[in-house]
Amino acid sequence: MFAWNPAHSRPFSLSSSLLLPTALAFVLIGCGPTVTRPPARPAASTGPLVLELINPQINRIERAPGDPEEHGTLGLMYEANQMWGPATQSFSNAADIDPANPIWTVHLYVSRKSLGETTGEWQRLEALVDRFAANPPFLYILGQERLANGEIGAAQQAFEKCLRIAPGEPATLVALSELMNLTGNPQQALQLAQQALVKAPGHPTVLNARGLALRALGRSDDAKSDLQAGLNATKLSFPDEGLRRLSGYFAAPQMIISHSADLIEAGYPARAEGLLHKVLLSKPGDKDALNNLALALKNLSRPEEALTQLREALKTDPDYFPTLVNITDLLLTLNRPEEALTHAQKSVEIDGENALAHRQLGMSLIRVRNFPAALISFENSLSLQPGIFACHAAASEAALASGNLEAATNHLSEASKLRPNFLPAQVNLVHLLIRQGQLDEADRRLKDLFDRLGDHPEVVKAYDALLRARSSGGGNR
After folding, report:
1. Does position 30 have pLDDT exceeding 70, yes or no?
2. pTM higher than 0.85 for the full model?
3. What does the CA dihedral 108, 109, 110, 116 come to, rounded to 10 degrees?
4. What CATH code is carried by the domain that includes residue 186?
């Protein structure tokens, strides 16, 4: 908690000893008016779950209207639920009462930007530089604002100072990486993005930064998968005490649903399940809540319960693409490919430009042993989203089962490029090359595998197969 220090007016000049008790009283209790603010109130249309969260906080502010921590906490509650108008007012109240606390200044900036109130923000932040010169979250938003206003050198100074105070922070590393790209230093941009990946492995924003650097270096093929993963990625936020508290204040149904997805991804499906049941009490039949609940239940090894939730979601909206994708995936997990195929076909009908829909259709078709149709679906998927290892591997399997050795070899060759250290793909490709009579290419790949892995049993088996092919008169075609 941040203690509230009442504001003091100018010192009094006392000329009479008779006034000493009064002066002492001023010293003890503080003099001058206390800064107070009424609580920021929500819109009339605010839902019951949010009101349940904020009404007690509003009551606390009414009892202590001069407490900046209470106003700031209300602001965080509004921010967590993307209610930017009252969030802005709450943080403004907190910053007015306690201008020395950087948390309220930083979150006032975030809420104003989210509300679209950008006029004067740069000047406001610059006026506070001396006060918050050692605060990393403030330096980060200062750098962002300077960059947005074309002050490249000043932005770099802010980011570099931020990084010195808080080394290794991914948000700052990504910001500097993007700035280095802007200034024509892609090699440095790449190094910064790779540093960010150490603390934020797989994060879309960080992958996007690395992809931009690779592309600027002329390595477009290497950049492709990173840029695809980082498509539509949002800027990273610099973590501060306020940001760390936000997840405890999610109350709007959509925010809880989004938070539940994060919990599931982080390995806490049981916590997600509890939150989603709360949403469904407030909004029965919510298709997004039902989908995430199904994912949580699947992660808790309760697939039949998950299937029940997805069927409920289909009742709400039988053409909702995420439900069709999730139920297809679950039915494949439950080894019910015929049912999965029905939903996969509908997914493709609804969104024929979606690579995942075609990939799931291919997986369903391969499970019902329609290999030629599966190959077509996988190739449709790859035409929409190239460079997916699992799709190339499955396409190779479908092609091989269809007797199309050339397509099987081509797809497995692409898969081996995407994961050069995945031994099954490398060894299976050697066997396919041998079957096609491409013995020199098989020999070249085996030499590379021996160099990297030594006498691995699978590599030795492939080598024995090559020797048998040579002894039987096989050759290149």
Report:
1. no
2. no
3. 110
4. 1.25.40.10
